[in-house]
Input
Amino acid sequence: MTGGPSRPGDPQRKLAAGERIIGPIRLLLQYGEDASVLEKTAAAALLYTAPQEKAWTKLRAEKSSGQILEEICKVGREEIIFSDIMNYIDRFEEILRTGNRVPGAMYHL
Output
């Protein structure tokens, strides 16, 4: 079985347009539901680093998160999904940079 607990990586595949993260975000928004948890998941996946993920590490070195959203996730800059995910990335990076984290803050990003 791939993609299960023994294979947590492969963010490029999981972030692809119709796959496990972006596909459900689109579906939730299509039906007027809250997609913020999956948008946070997408933001965290875009920031994910792991030496064993050589293709992903190379892609992240060559492209910005915004470029990956556009090219891999097929999310246009004009879409609300794009700005939501980029805002979560900014917030996560601030937490990583400053270490300022309030207990439970992830739920209120």
The two ends are 33 Å apart (CA to CA). The chain has one domain: 11-108. Confidence is low (pLDDT under 50) at residues 1-6. Residues 32 and 85 are 17 Å apart (CA to CA).
